[in-house]
Task: inverse folding
């Protein structure tokens, strides 16, 4: 059921996040888990908004590559 899916997604996400550099993981968690906008994440992490966008873009690419065909 949906609970299984939620659990699977959660476990996948935790596994996937381990592949990321610390800053990228931090940005991704703030974005997806805490639903923060890039501006808020930038303030939280004390970096520029463009840095946050770069972190998110790289992190998502890493996760996509990991999910893709091996």
Result:
């Amino acid at each position: 059921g949906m609970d299984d899916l939620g659990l699977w997604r959660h476990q996948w996400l935790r596994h996937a996040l381990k592949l990321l550099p610390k800053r990228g993981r931090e940005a991704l968690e703030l974005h997806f888990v805490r639903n923060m906008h890039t501006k808020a994440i930038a303030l939280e992490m004390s970096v520029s908004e463009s840095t946050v966008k770069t972190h998110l873009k790289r992190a998502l690419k890493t996760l996509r590559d990991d999910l893709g065909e091996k």
In short: The CA atoms of residues 4 and 10 lie 10 Å apart. The chain is about 80% helix and 0% strand. Helices lie at 2-18, 22-32, 38-45, 49-67.
